[in-house]
């Protein structure tokens, strides 16, 4: 009967909640040791010129190879790491690893590959963020312009502080991108005064392409307005050929997505680049 069912649902809910909490604590403990135990690694998704197919750079995406739970994706541990602050040392590791990898590719004769790294707001709240980034770039011995930081619109929740940090990073010659554009609350006109190089249109908008009615025209409007403000527009999450045609027709010529390439391991990127040479 309904009453009994309700009770079962209730108990089920708590059992699930409990499971969720203990999995979280388990993950938190394990994540604390993950760096030194060498369990974290990066995959790289190419950024492609949509007309020529040229690789314009790669985006580093974090993966965790957990000994018993297997491969864990960022959606399951980044927010946890943000909550606990662990994202700060992890984020430093990511920047360093990505730059070292780019250097390694260069030494192997694969050219100067630009690397983009995702940055959480929590990392930027750390007072030493800019200095740390500068130090890592210097230690690895890399032109700062080969590093790009992908940040989300949520930085605009603290505009004054964010603007100051972005200007400091730009003064170091580091490239800056707004990731997942369109999902936050900022407008392009608010971003116009920021020293941003690239705007990445969120996959949810790219999914609407090609739809020549209202939804498709939102993408068109973002591209047009972004261009008029001198941002380079990158489309993320391209899964179909016809999306490419629409983007190129509307002058968005850089993209990422499974249709172009899924995120690859460092070794796979090597092969990917060699095939292009
Ligand atoms: P993001 O920066 O927007 O990265 C794009 C995500 O979409 C990646 O998922 C990528 O694998 C996936 N993707 C790319 N192309 C396609 C496509 O065509 N179709 C579909 N369905 N998905 C596609 P991933 O690697 O699981 O990363 C998820 C998010 O986790 C990232 O979103 C980023 O916000 C965050 N993240 C990843 N690595 C790091 C990191 O090192 N530090 C921080 N702070 N966040 C990270
Ligand atoms: Mg990103
Ligand atoms: Mg994105
Ligand atoms: Mg995203």
Describe this structure as you would to a colleague.
By secondary structure, the protein is of the alpha/beta class. Helix content is 49%, strand content 19%. It has helices at 2-34, 74-84, 87-107, 121-124, 129-140, 159-171, 188-191, 203-206, 214-228, 241-249, 266-276, and strands spanning 40-49, 55-66, 70-72, 115-118, 147-152, 175-181, 198-201, 232-235, 254-255. Strands 1-2-4-5-6-7-8-9 form an eight-stranded mixed beta barrel, surrounded by four helices. Strand 6, helix 7 (188-191) and strand 7 form a beta-alpha-beta unit. The longest helix has 33 residues, at 2-34. 32% of the residues are buried. The model has no long low-confidence stretch (mean pLDDT 91).
Strand content: 15-25%
- Average pLDDT score: 91
How many strand units? 9
Structural class: alpha/beta
Largest sheet: 8 strands, mixed, barrel
Low-confidence runs of at least 5 consecutive residues: none
- As a whole number of angstroms, the C-alpha radius of gyration is 20 Å
Bound molecules: ligand C2E, magnesium ion
How do the SSEs run, as a string of H and E? HEEEHHEHHEHEHEHHEHEH
* Principal-axes shape call: globular
In brief:
The chain is α/β, with parallel strands linked by helices and 277 residues long. Helix content is 49%, strand content 19%.
List keywords for this structure.
single chain; 277 residues; alpha/beta; eight-stranded mixed β-barrel; 49% helix; globular; binds ligand C2E; binds magnesium ion
